[in-house]
């Protein structure tokens, strides 16, 4: 997840630059008038695969210069004195931090250290707190969607078109369904499980009590290596809570209100950023950059249209996964729910492809049909996005303040 957050956009940009540069080189080598289908097909496959290779290498080996404080590394884990000093200083570190990035998983709402960090950050920054929550599951989901869409784009390029030699409508639909369902199964199943875990988290935080939160040292029975003293993190954190929040009750109230609302708001539909959706559709640009260079007007509208269409398909699938997030009474029904989400995504895609074909046949020029399809996709995606924004918006109340802070704010 941290690789995607810090290196993901750099990987996409480098992969895109490489694919576009290769497209220009192939265009220069083959000649600007070369429009043979085999040459265009080979160029698209080559650019796609090279873009994948470069983006993977950049994702793994790019050196990001952003300065971060990673508590697991920066707080000493073996020296008791240094560990206590680090724990006691965490509130000052949070206060001086510009942003808090949370790599969330279903156990987050049960861990005392994590909840204290988040509550202290929100309290110290108030409404100006810059909080970014990224569920860990979105790492493999994003990679799965990216790889699946890359396969889908290659299939779009390589599969026989209806009416072509050796091509039929049923052959194309069957192959698309096979590739689509196999590529989307894991992401959709993970998203459904993710939405279920959000419901569990909200229920746990609404009933949060300090005594129910866990610490790693307590779960392992405070076992230490021979000759070392194992301090209890809970005791140190509770002292920090009393110093920072004034009382245990104030901290529990902060977790039940401010922390719960902040996490719920960020873990809603917006948990998969829109820029990630567009990044996942970048293989489309890589594959069709070479044809777009030969036919700039048509190619630009084509890439623009499908770059907006793919996020719309994802949002439709994610919305249906949210509606069907509940665990079914049997394994077969649960798999059927996942299959239904995948089929709806495929139906949306095939509907868009059909619309593109109809528009290209009902207007005077082919480029006008592609332009009309691009305008339709931009409008549709914008409408779906507005619905997401309206349904997902939740206000985050301010952290409860102690009587001393209230008097200070009033100038007493």
UniProtKB/TrEMBL annotation:
Asked whether the keyword RNA-binding is assigned, the reply is no
Alphabetical UniProt keywords = Membrane, Transmembrane, Transmembrane helix
- Residues spanning the membrane: 7-29, 41-62, 131-157, 169-188, 274-293, 299-324, 336-360, 366-388
Q: Which domain of life is it from?
A: Eukaryota
Annotated protein name in UniProt: Uncharacterized protein
């Amino acid at each position: 997840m941290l690789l995607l957050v810090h290196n993901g956009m750099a990987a996409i940009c480098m992969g895109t630059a490489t694919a576009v540069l290769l497209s220009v080189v192939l265009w220069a080598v083959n000649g600007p008038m070369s429009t043979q289908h085999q040459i265009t097909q080979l160029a698209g496959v080559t650019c796609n695969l090279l873009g994948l290779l470069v983006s993977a290498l950049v994702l793994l080996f790019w050196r990001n210069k952003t300065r971060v404080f990673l508590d697991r590394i920066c707080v000493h884990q073996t020296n008791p004195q240094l560990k206590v000093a680090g724990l006691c200083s965490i509130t000052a570190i949070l206060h001086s931090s510009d942003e808090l990035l949370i790599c969330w998983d279903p156990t987050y709402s049960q861990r005392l250290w994590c909840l204290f960090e988040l509550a202290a950050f929100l309290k110290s920054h108030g409404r100006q707190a810059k909080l970014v929550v990224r569920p860990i599951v979105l790492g493999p989901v994003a990679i799965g969607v990216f790889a699946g869409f890359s396969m889908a784009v290659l299939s779009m390029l390589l599969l026989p078109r209806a009416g072509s030699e050796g091509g039929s409508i049923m052959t194309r639909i069957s192959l698309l369904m096979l590739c689509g369902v196999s590529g989307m199964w894991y992401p959709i199943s993970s998203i459904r499980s993710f939405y279920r875990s959000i419901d569990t988290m909200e229920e746990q935080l609404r009933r949060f009590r300090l005594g129910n939160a866990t610490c790693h040292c307590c779960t392992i029975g405070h076992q230490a290596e021979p000759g070392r003293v194992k301090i209890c993190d809970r005791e140190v954190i509770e002292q920090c809570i009393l110093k920072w929040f004034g009382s245990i009750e104030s901290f529990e109230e902060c977790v039940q209100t401010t922390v719960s609302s902040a996490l719920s708001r960020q873990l809603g539909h917006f948990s998969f950023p829109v820029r990630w959706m567009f990044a996942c559709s970048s293989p489309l640009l890589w594959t069709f950059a070479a044809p777009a260079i030969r036919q700039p007007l048509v190619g630009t509208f084509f890439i623009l249209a499908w770059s907006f269409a793919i996020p719309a398909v994802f949002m439709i699938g994610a919305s249906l996964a949210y509606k069907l997030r509940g665990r079914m009474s049997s394994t077969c029904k649960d798999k059927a729910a996942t299959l239904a989400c995948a089929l709806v995504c495929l139906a949306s895609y095939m509907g868009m492809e059909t619309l593109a074909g109809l528009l290209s046949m009902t207007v005077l020029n082919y480029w006008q049909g592609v332009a009309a399809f691009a305008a339709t996709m931009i409008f549709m995606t914008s409408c779906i996005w507005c619905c997401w924004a309206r349904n997902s918006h939740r206000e985050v109340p301010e952290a409860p303040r102690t009587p001393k802070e209230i008097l200070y704010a009033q100038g007493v």
